[in-house]
Amino acid sequence: MQYSKEIVKENIEISKGIYKLVLEGNFYAKPGQFYMLKAWEEGLILPRPISVYEVDGKCLSFLYALVGKGTRELSKLQIGDEIQITGALGNGFPLDKIKGKVAIVAGGIGIAPMNYLVKQLEGCEIDLYAGFREVDYSLEELEKYVKSVYVATESGNKGHKGYITDLLKVENYDLVLCCGPEIMMKKVVDMCSEKNINVYVSMEKRMACGIGACLVCTCKTKEGNKRSCKEGPVFNGRDLIFND
What we know:
The protein has helices spanning about 70-75, 110-120, 180-195, and strands at about 1-15, 20-25, 35-40, 50-55, 60-65, 80-90, 100-105, 125-130, 150-155, 160, 175-180, 200, 220, 225, 235. By secondary structure, the chain is mainly beta.
């Protein structure tokens, strides 16, 4: 983990309310890790946790959605602007345990960490399940790395009209990897528990410090409370206790 000030190479809106931020430099991160980003000196105090979308040795990229004041400030960044970052933080996906036939399940902006993850997997047969509210995005980045792509939109604009869990048959896989709204992840974990399928999820919790000191991002597990920023954000899904 390290703190640095970096220069924005690109910050573009790729879909309505969805932005891709690119920083130029030699960065390192594991799939599933995140950085704390801050691009303001006044008004807002805390940085924002954003999952790593891509690291290629030359650039570090993030995909984020406009959900509040912090991300709105990030969306105003222009080429050449300075941004403060701390990372890489958290525990990522256990690459050594990802084998066989794998289902990647993403809901909305939960597609972001899956982009980098899929590109790091080797020797697996991967199917991608992606759910969105109205329109899809970022799928073209992943299609060449997976065997099949299944899409669902609540609006019916593309693919199945409804939820991506309607299409998922967890019993067809050795392992399921999931990121998205908590209600969706709970459904996926319940499906996997019923069929005795291993599942890992990336928890999207609000964070204040990102280093485990403030306990804002605590989640419940069968072994007690754990911090999403430190012990997570990736957890064995069957160890988590979701709120009903």
